[in-house]
Structures are given as C-alpha cells and as structure tokens.
Amino acid sequence: MTFRPLLRSALLAGALACAAPAMANDSSAELAAGGLVLTRTAAVAMRSEDLYISPTAVRVRYVFENTSGKDVTLRVAFPMPDIGGDGFFMGDVSIPVDDPANILGFSTKVDGKPVKAQVEQKAFAGGVDRTGWLVANRIPLAVHQDAATKAMEALPPAKLKEAQALGLYDEDQGPIWVLKTTYHWSQTFPAGKPIVVEHAYTPSVGATVATSVGSAYGAETEAKYCVDPGMVAAVKRAGGEDGAFIEKWIDYVLVTGGNWSEPIGDFRLVVDKGAPRNLVSFCADGVKKIGPTQFEVRRKNWRPEKDLQILLLERREP
C-alpha cells in the first residue's frame, strides 16, 4: 500500500505577520509537525498514544494492534513540514536542526529497535514537481541552505533565466521552490499482536521578543490559545508587553490520528513549559497540573478533530 503525505506545510510566516503582535519583525514562525501518517486502513487500531511536548523535545509512544485476523504490511510515513516558497525568509522561520533532509532530527523505534527509514524529497514550484530539473542541474534540494543559493547563482545566465521562468528562483529572494520531505518505511503489523512505535524530534519553536497578551491588541492571541484571565493578570503584574516575557509558539498536528481504523483508545498529552516561572496556555478541556512544569490531558476512545497550538511565555531573566 502506498502512503500519501497528508501532513501539509504549516509554515505560518505570512499568517503570523498578521496575527502576531506589532513586533513581528523580531519574530520567527514555527513549523507544525505531528505524528505518523498512513493511508486509511480498517486493519490497524491505535490502542494508545502517549505524547510529550516541550520547547526542546517532542516524544510520542504509540501502541498499535492489527484487528483484521491476518498479518498486514503498510507503509508508514512521517512528513516533515514543507519549507521554502515565494515569500519564505530563513530569518523568519525556526529550523532547529541543520540537516538538509531532517530539519527536526526525527528518529523512530519499533518495539525498542531503531528503524532505518527511507527519505523522499521533492521540490515543487507553482504546484509542479521540478525535482528532476534541480537534480539534472546539480542544485541541492535543501532550499533553506546556502549551498542551494550558491549553486543556483553559479548557473550559466541562460539556465538561471530558465530557473526563473520555472518559478525556482527570484532575483531578490533567491531559491523559492517548496521542499517536501517525508520519512517512510514498510511496517508489518502481526495479527492480534500489539506493537510499540516510538518517535522523537526537536520541535520548531516560533518566538517574538515580547508578548501581546494583556495588551490592547492581544485579543486575537488570547482567543487562539484560550488564555484565561489568570494568565492575563500574571502578565500584567510582571510588566505586560514591556519585555517581561518572550512569547513562543509550538504547533502539533493531531488530526492525522484519525487515519487509523478506530478512535485512539487511550490518549495522553503532557505539555511541559520548561521552567516553573514560565506561563503556558493551549485549548483543551480537563487540563490537569501534574508537576511544577507539566500539564496533562487524557482522552478515551478519542478521534482528534483539530490540531494543537501551544503558547509559551518564557520569563526573561531579571
């Protein structure tokens, strides 16, 4: 069975320029990533998902069970967020790992053993796959790295003009194709036998130098992240928008969990704000504080209908 990368780019550089506070020129956008993806199947159920999210690490532990009565082999995928495109500026986007094919440092294990995943990378311009052109002209596909810019600028004038006509290059911006990267592997799910799949990566964390929470223009941010009055009051007591906090954002794609045969049997989310002095907010019912920095959400027989957006206010050192 072939996979399809259902996770699409959540690069919010343009959107955040409108939604973020006035200091957006001093901000970076986050790239939303999430969990495992495969084509819809009636054979495999996700019995549990244990998800941990912090500013420095995302870890997920799944238990899957094949309920079909016979062994099933499926292609499982982890799509990286799309990067690049017209209007993409590296200084505005948080890319945590300097790896042309693995910008989040993704790794995975099955029943405790590391999985060697395959990597598929494709470059698109104007919705057209231009990977072949770039490869033929020895242009690195990693649009966000200097090597791609240098290789493009080293092309003969006629080739550079062709790249511009194909929508791959802009004189002011440099390379502007969209890079789509997907990690994938073939996984056998034995009949009736649970298997444990774990993956980990470094999240892309957007940030800005101050916060709009508690300010005259903070209503949109407060609504987006379900900020409660207590958090607003805490920000105002600390000095409000005058630089007491650095505002950070982490996005996580949850809806891909709906591709399995049944709702997630037992879902657990832990959000870690990193330090007791920090503040955190996200939209969820039944949030329970379980430690000085950690907050837990649990669900039974749950099928996620929307993705997770986390607001983290990191207090500046005195």
UniProtKB/TrEMBL annotation:
Q: Which regions span the lipid bilayer?
A: none
InterPro entries according to UniProt: DUF4424 (IPR025538)
Which domain of life, per UniProt? Bacteria
- Family annotation (Pfam families): DUF4424
Q: Where is the signal peptide?
A: 1-24
Does the entry feature the keyword Signal, yes or no? yes
Where do the coiled-coil regions begin and end? none
The UniProt keyword set, sorted, is: Signal
Domain DUF4424 stretches: 24-311
Give the protein name, as stated in the record: DUF4424 domain-containing protein
User: Which organism is the protein's source?
Assistant: Caulobacter zeae
